[in-house]
Each structure stands twice: as C-alpha cells, then as structure tokens.
C-alpha cells in the first residue's frame, strides 16, 4: 500500500482512514497479500474476526499470522465495499500512541459487516494496529424490524373469518402445538433471554425451558441484598433500554422482574416449571431427541440445536472437611445461601475471599450476625467501585456513552489478549494508586492482596476463572475496621460447635458458608446429554491458546450443542454472533463441528 497520508502531511482522520480502507480493498481484490502485510504494523498488529471471514470468533496476532489468514480465507470470502461510516473517524490517544480510530462497513457474498480500525504512524506511514471485522447480518436473512411498508401486508387490509387473535397466536407459538423449536435453550436467565431475543429477530423458532416457578425467579431467589456488580449501562439488554432512572447496580429482585417483562414484551417463548431430563443427538437426522418434564408431564421435542444457558456456575464445589457430620450448625455453599437476615445473633464463618465471599460476609453483618469471620485461602485482587469502574467502563458504559451497538462493537474490537497485555496492566496500576489508602488498610488488617499475573487484575481473574477478585461495596472497610474477623488458611476439621483452622486456631460457629466456586459449566450437560456428547465439547471459559474464550459463543466441539455464559455485557455483545452461527448452520452456510466425516470449518 502506497500513497497513504502521513502524520506530517495531514491531520484529517477521515482522510487517513478512507485512504487505508481504499488501498486495502484494492490489495485484497488483486490478491496482493504482500501489500496487505505492508499495511499492518510490524510491531504487534491484531485482527479479530467475528464470523465474517472465519465463521468463528478468532484472533490473529502479528503481521505474518494476519497475512496468512487473509491469503487463506479471502479468495473464498472476499470483503468488499469497505466504506468509512460518516463522521466515525477520529484521533485518539491509546496507550500513548497517536491513533486514528474509525468505524467502517463492508460486505461479503453472504453477509453485511461492520468493523473498527486503528491506525498508527509507523516509520512515516499509517499502518493498522488493530482491526475488527464483525458480521452484522446474513444477506436475505436480516433481523426483522417493523416497517411502515408493513401497512400494505394483506393481514392488515383483509377481513378474515375466524381470525386468530394475537394472544391465540402467541399461545400457539409458545406451546409449539403444531411445530418444533429450531433451538432449545436450557435456562431463562440473562444469557438465555438475550440469545432468544437475537433468534427471535432473525426469525429462528426458539424455546427456553426453566425449572423455576416463575420467569425471573433465578434472580429473585438469590440471597437478600444481592445486586449486579456491573453498572446499569454495561448490563443493558439488546432491543430494549432501561429507564434513565434505573438503579446504578440492579437489585436481584428487580433483575428478575426485568427478565420476566422482557420475555413478555419481546414475545419470546419460554416454559417454566420445566426441566430437560434427557437429550440425545440423532446424527442422521441432525436433530436432538429431548425429553422435557413440564409440571410433571413429559413432552418430547425435536430441536435442531440445544443451548445451555445455565450460567457461569456448574455444580457447586463443596470441600470435604474432616468431621463435618459432627458439626451441630449449618454447612452450605454460597449458591444455597439465603441471606444474612436469616441469622441475626449467629456466629458465621465464610470460606473464600472472592466476590461471593465478600458479599456473603457483608450480608451477615448487615443482617445482624453476632460475629463474622472471613477465611482467606489465597491473595485476592480488590478495587473500589468508585475508582475502578469509571476506569474500566468510563469510555463506553456511562449515561453519556456511545449508542449501545456502537459501544459493543468498539468493546469487542479489543482482543482479549490485547486487553490483558496492553490495556489492563496500566489501568490496574492507575486504580491501585487511587485505592492506595484502601489497599494499605486491608494489608494492615492482615488481608492479602495482589494484582494478578502481569498486573491483569480483575479481568485476568474473571476471564481465566481463577476467582479471587472483589469490587468493593463496603466489605473492605468492615475488614479494615475489625468489624469482620480475618482468618488465613483453611478449615481442616469441624468440631461439634465450630471449626479448627490449619494453624490450630479454633472458633465456635453456627453456620459455615463455603464460597469455593463451581465445577466447569460443561458438566451441566453431562447428566442430560451423556458422557460421549459432553466429552466432545470444549471445557467452558478461559482464554485459550487461540486468544479467545473457550467453548462459549462459538461451536462447542459437539455437533449442534452450544454454551452461552458470561456477564450481561459480554453476553449482549456476542449473543448475536451465536444466533448468526446457528442461522448459518440452518441455511447450509456453516458446517457443524463434531459430525462424523465433516470438516471443522464452514
């Protein structure tokens, strides 16, 4: 690529971005991949693709890997019509680099896409530092939206004898009386609901099944006082916004009400009091044979796809501790904890110093417990909400942030490893400086803090499933002030009236809550799908060698079996791509992985 404006020649970000896109398109059309390589920074360029080139969620790192990827894939999936979005190029300072950041659109033979481009001046030439290409729609199968043109549709202009009412139609659709769902989603929490909404807009028949008595009860039945740790701007749902006076951190009960209302307002299909007891895949027919027990009655369904949307948590991990049978009090996992208000005047011990452990400790304190002890087994990353959240979310997720789709596009344009290696360490140090008094107070109280491997802090712990992080909402000050006792190490033995720690210390207790994590989410499939199918699927979560989250938002490795897990913001940003992959399979554009004799790529 030659002739691009340099920093010395112009300060017009639009001109720079437009010229780069134009020459990229010319080089791709001519299959001049040497020129494409020259357009990329020699020092650490990144290209993240969300389905448009790879039919996968994939990250390519370094000029050589990016060029090889394009040379392999472009002949069969050529991006064209690369156009800068009007007014969407600007100069930004990113990690001290003078950067052109631009949003653009493009098409392929089958899809419409959007992208994000970041250019830096390298050796007097503007080259790409990071590129995102993200599928937005499959051509001919775009998201369905009501149009003024719909006024000409016959149903609105013709008398129909015995016309089916809207409610009757919804009942028929929801019950699947004369049809089968293409996608069966197990779980109607935020992940299942967001995916259902995406599928609904793409015209893909779906059904969510949830074992709770009422939609949203998976949030309402959590312990009293629980709220989301993400702000209302990050935790938004697609297609329907919260009111502008929504609580900063959504209370669990309100989230339950929101999910119930969202399902009804978006006309999504869901069954409650329903549990999937068995699911087996028929490879010849490429459909599942699923048994659902609904209010005591069995119903057989034949969906093409099964999606587990049962949350990040698999089966609770409850440690085996000597002499637990002799303990006269309660032993519970945090997943079964009802709330501190049920234990006024009681002596509580909480094992685990991650987010759940801190929340449970604070719940006991606020509920009037006589004493609360936090057992810390290893160092934890702690940041205050007041300082940490504005650093991490201030660019995209505030009352004055970008439009939701733009914010999601910009956020997903940073590959996970780019965030962990380039963005997060500096942010972690910045927050630590602002939180110096808090962190010093915790250390003086005997609470062990750290910043994670490579100063990757909260994001590193969250992405790699190691836990051990907490966004402070008051519990840290309780520890500093001595309102909460601190014990380092492990419980090694129970007594009739309490516990014995590894250092020999004893403590009387009425209840012990283990906040000790969960098994891998994949294990939720094993009792339903069996060992053979479950073992084909990748373990869920964690950034793998390919730089992407494993097993979720992409094909699992088992044919027609999907997992979707993550925080509300992450799920919202990538749920559309799960729906597009499912649609791609149904339209014959994407080959499912895990079928006998089939390749792994579409």
General description of the model:
The chain has three domains: 126 residues, Nuclear Transport Factor 2, Chain: A, CATH 3.10.450.50; 217 residues, FAD/NAD(P)-binding domain (3-Layer(bba) Sandwich), CATH 3.50.50.60; 191 residues, FAD/NAD(P)-binding domain (3-Layer(bba) Sandwich). It contains 17 helices and 24 strands. Helix 9 packs antiparallel against helix 11 and helix 11 crosses helix 13. The longest helix has 19 residues. The two termini are 31 Å apart. This is Flavin-containing monooxygenase. It comes from Rhodococcus wratislaviensis (Tsukamurella wratislaviensis).
Q: List the strand order in the largest sheet.
A: 2-1-6-5-4-3
Structural class: alpha/beta
According to CATH, the homologous superfamily of the largest domain is FAD/NAD(P)-binding domain
- End-to-end separation in angstroms reads 31 Å
GO molecular function, one term: flavin adenine dinucleotide binding
Pfam family, one: Pyr_redox_2
Protein name: Flavin-containing monooxygenase
Keywords: Monooxygenase, Oxidoreductase
Highlighted features:
602 residues; alpha/beta; Nuclear Transport Factor 2, Chain: A; FAD/NAD(P)-binding domain; 3 domains; 6-stranded mixed sheet; 5-stranded parallel sheet; 17 helices; 23% strand; globular; disordered C terminus; oxidoreductase; Auxin_biosynth/cation_transpt; monooxygenase activity; Flavin-containing monooxygenase
